[in-house]
Amino acid sequence: MTRPRRPHASGGVLLRPWRPSDAPAVLRAFAPAEMARQSGGHPVTTQAEALDWIARWERERTAGTGYAWAAVRPTGRSATGRSEVAQGAVVRGEVVRSAAVQGAAVQGEALGCVAVTAVNQVHGCGWVSYWTTEAARGSGVASAGVRALARWAFEDLGLYRLELGHRTDNPASCAVARRAGFTAEGIERGKLRYGDVRHDVERHARLATDPVNFG
User: Fold this and answer.
1) Which residues are within 8 A (CB) of 2 and not within 5 positions of it... i.e. 6 or more apart?
2) Does the keyword rRNA-binding apply (predicted)?
């Protein structure tokens, strides 16, 4: 891992670790029926289940197999009284790794989640996933968050290839992938089943050596 750095601005979006205090926001995020698919088979319908969801990510982080970050628009201020977001202008986004920033400065409510799982250090690969709250959809939070996650995964985890997938009937998720620099690689037919319906999935990938293209 590289030495922790303070975050830059990211068009108003920063990534920070999930905290137990985020449980109410997690519970609200998983309230829509569509979001139940994002819970990994673990229902999130109570405060206790929301806390368990957060704790599972901490266990993944400890094991080195997965890392999830809350995407926030910071509302706090630094020790100098200046807004952290006003200190720079890096549109790719940044992960909050400074303990000082993780504490007082980044107090905004979680607007979404970006994660890299199935981390394989032998092959330098990982699987990216993301979601946003209903209120944050269409605001650019997801694409900014995935860009920040990819940068962190390449620079800090040392990964070479990141993959993600979305249902072919989900153009919004496809747009997030493209805007985060992920190239479509093909269709996986009938990969997902929800109820009695199977869905094709389009796979995207981004390499550490890919030219930056956030189109």
Assistant:
1) 155, 156
2) no
Q: 77-98, pLDDT tens digit by residue?
A: 433 333 333 222 222 345 554 4
| Look-up of token digits 């201020």 | 77
pLDDT recorded at residue 36 = 77
> Rounded CA gap, 51 and 20, in Å?
6
- Cβ atoms of 35 and 137 closer than 8 Å: no
Q: Among 152, 28, 173, which residue's Cα sits nearest to residue 90? A: 152
E strands in the chain: 14-17, 67-72, 110-120, 125-132, 161-167, 183-194, 197-207
* Domains (range + CATH), the chain: 14-207 (3.40.630.30)
Number of H helices, E strands in the chain: 5, 7
